[in-house]
Amino acid sequence: DVQLVESGGGSVDTGGSLRLDCALTTSTYYSNGFCMGWFRQAPGKEREAVATTSTNFVLYADSVKGRFTVARGNSKNTMYLQMNSLTPEDTAMYYCAAGVGCSLNSRTYPYWGQGTQVTVS
User: Fold this and answer.
1) Cβ-count burial of 53 within 10 angstroms (0-12 exposed, 13-18 middle, 19+ buried)?
2) Interstrand relation of 35-41 and 58-60 (parallel, antiparallel or unpaired)
3) Which residues are CB-contacts of 74 (< 8 A; sequence separation ≥ 6)?
């Protein structure tokens, strides 16, 4: 069983910053090999990729390059997303995802958190 819990969402003014955290808990032996990623979904829009990271690489969606930073925490089962220079277009529910494969395609990931809301005004 794999569980993902996001935290750190909230409301911020345009140009502000927020940090999101994701914690993965699992009893499976291969948890350290998981790829973890961030996705977001705004009302009325499809879910889109934000960033993904494994132990040796990072991928970003073009819309967030240069503004967002994703990294695994001190524990390989944690991940954070530092979001800077936020705009109203970044308003969405942000989801943490995990799986064996790494990509910016949401179908790659079988495990998902419940999401945390980010609102930029």
Assistant:
1) buried
2) unpaired
3) none
Name the strand (E) or helix (H) holding 96: strand 92-99
Q: What is the pLDDT of residue 58?
A: 94
Strands 111-112 and 116-120 come out as: unpaired
Q: Collapsing DSSP states into helix, strand and coil, what is residue 36? A: strand
72 near 21, Cβ under 8 Å?
Answer: no
Q: What distance, in Å, lies between the first and last C-alpha atoms of the chain?
A: 37
The tens digit of pLDDT for each residue in 26-65 reads 876 555 678 999 999 999 999 999 999 987 889 999 999 9
Bridge pairing between strands 68-72 and 78-83: antiparallel
Among the listed residues 41, 33, 44, 11, the one whose alpha carbon sits nearest the alpha carbon of residue 113: 41
In percent, how much of the chain has pLDDT > 70?
A: 95
